[in-house]
Amino acid sequence: MTEWPVPEMVPTNGVTLGVYRMGPEPAESGKPAVFFLHGFPEIAYSWRAQMTAFAEAGHSVFTPDQRGYGVSDAPEGVQQFTMQKLTDDLRGLLDHYGIEKAVFVGHDWGAIILWQLPFYMPERVLGCAGLNVPLLPHYPMDPVAMFRARFGEDMYIVRFQEEGACEPILERDLMQTFKFFLRKPNKGKVQKSDVPFEEKSLDLLGLLEKGEDAWGGERLLSDRETAVYAKAYKKNGFTGPIHWYRNFTANWQDQKRFLEGGRLPHVNLPCLMITADLDRACPPVIADAMAGMCTPYERIDLKGCGHWSQQERADDVNTAIMDWMQRHFA
Q1: Cys-Cys crosslink for 270: which of 34, 123, 127, 303, Cβ 3.0 to 4.6 Å?
Q2: What is the CATH number for 246?
Q3: Residue of 108, 194, 203, 279 marked active site
């Protein structure tokens, strides 16, 4: 694999983001530029296999440590992490690199941002490929209230709403935290304890505190790779990343300005959804509504795969996205 690059520190939208680049200059490529958007609790490094493959295929590729993560700035205040701020960061990166439109690929929270780009900055998007988290219809009620009603007070997103309450738990031992998060199903089969939360309550933090014997599954990354994550989170900690969750309600309210007849407008851009059948946090069934929300739309279901798809099944993910891009952007 190509050596992981040194980040370029790029000013955008009032912050400076660390952006990792591979491949030719955008103007020299002749192929669409591709931006990879990481999720929680990850960093740009999670896309290392995709960056290498797409750069070798002749694409100009970019992945930022997004606002609050890794080497990038983590401004103070929950209001600094709204969907408007996060999408404006990407608009600024496109402007900085002189790119009119790009293909965006997102995983987990990166996919949540990805699926909002056709509404927040449609003029800058060629196509969207999402992993594990789909484009969802507008929630019928405040999502945090909905999560609380469905899963209770211990559900991790509900617990995240109290600023300062969860950060010490996650920051106590960063290597241990990432050994907990970055796991895969043991032998490709989900058993009762093979997921990083309890199924009924999604008490992710409670399970972390129980210790490794209770976690189930098996580690996805080596000690060396896990240490990359731990080192990255020493700079900013977890407050900025968790602030993304603390904007669920504000983002839901802001999304209402895009609604047409109470629904999100149809997305008329090439869209690819990649699900993983052993991802209990985001099971494939939650993507079923997308077929009626996007055109042209394609879906691929990875069998025997957990939540961290682009690392667990890098070759399959790379092939799926490249095949999709060749058909729509060649």
Answers
A1: 127
A2: 3.40.50.1820
A3: 108
